[in-house]
Amino acid sequence: MTTLTSPPGGAAIRHPAPPTTTGRIGTPRQGGTILAVPALVWYAVFMIGPVIAIFVIAALHWPGMLQPVSFAGLGNVRTVLDDPVFWDAVRNTAVQLAVALPIMIVCAYMLGYYVAQKPPGHRVIRYLLFIPGLISTPAKAMVFYAALSPDGLANGALESVGLGSLTDAWLASPSTALACLIALDVWSGIGFTAVLFAARLDSVPDDLGEAAQLDGAGHWRTMWRIHFPVIRDYVGVVTMLQFLWTLFGSAQHVLLLTQGGPGSSSTTLSFLVYQKAFIAADLGYSQTVGVILFLAGLVGLLAIRRAFRQNY
């Protein structure tokens, strides 16, 4: 719609009418909401639904998938807390996170910083760092089994340099089984994490590093005093991801290499969930541990977020 105005002594001028707020102005926003409905339904069914199911099953006495179900209330909680295997799993999981996570993040950041400086062959180094991520979990477990078995590469190397007294059945010894699993976690995660850090550090302006070096700062101070504060939020995100992968993903390594043994020396919380559900057929116990694992993950994420002062 247009309007006509007549200036003094002149011809009429046609002006377009201002847009109105009626009609189809609100259609795009409504259409965007409609398009989000399938994703919201998917999230509710396959993300929120399983979380609710964990809490429901944790309150049931369910001795197998085809067995009758009865209400247990807090009985499963008392059973779990009275089980010494559970406390061994808590201790092993705490040790695993306390050792693997700092080593992985610190070493990956330093390695990513080195790659971001674009040394000779840095493109090849990036590809090499991806190798552990390209190997399937069973293949990685077989590599470590071949290296750590009684007649494997580790013992053979020790004997070849005259340190035969240090040889051990690494995966079958209560004092070393958990350490071997931690080594596998670090080896499989450090390369991929370093590539993530290198990609983020590439976006940091070169002027920052050059100015620091002109002021007399070496690579060590530049790495930790200049670049680290710039990508601090990103370090927090990567730390959260590695925390979750280590906390919930350790069951596959335990299952393939040690089966939680000897005894319960390498049993972790995530493996205990699998063991009780699929081997012992005690679904109530399993999901009670799953609830504890879920709460531990939530508390860990909040602690990491607070440590890195993230604002989201």
UniProtKB/TrEMBL annotation:
Protein family per UniProt: Belongs to the binding-protein-dependent transport system permease family.
Topology in membrane: Multi-pass membrane protein
Residue intervals of the ABC transmembrane type-1 domain: 90-304
Segments for region (Disordered): 1-26
Segments crossing the lipid bilayer: 34-62, 94-115, 127-148, 176-199, 234-257, 277-304
Gene source species: Streptomyces rugosispiralis
PROSITE patterns, per database record: ABC_TM1
The name this protein goes by in its record: Sugar ABC transporter permease
Localisation per UniProt entry: Cell membrane
Entry keywords, A to Z: Cell membrane, Membrane, Transmembrane, Transmembrane helix, Transport
Main location as per UniProt: membrane
Alphabetical list of CDD domains matching this protein: TM_PBP2
UniProt entry tagged with the keyword Flavoprotein: no
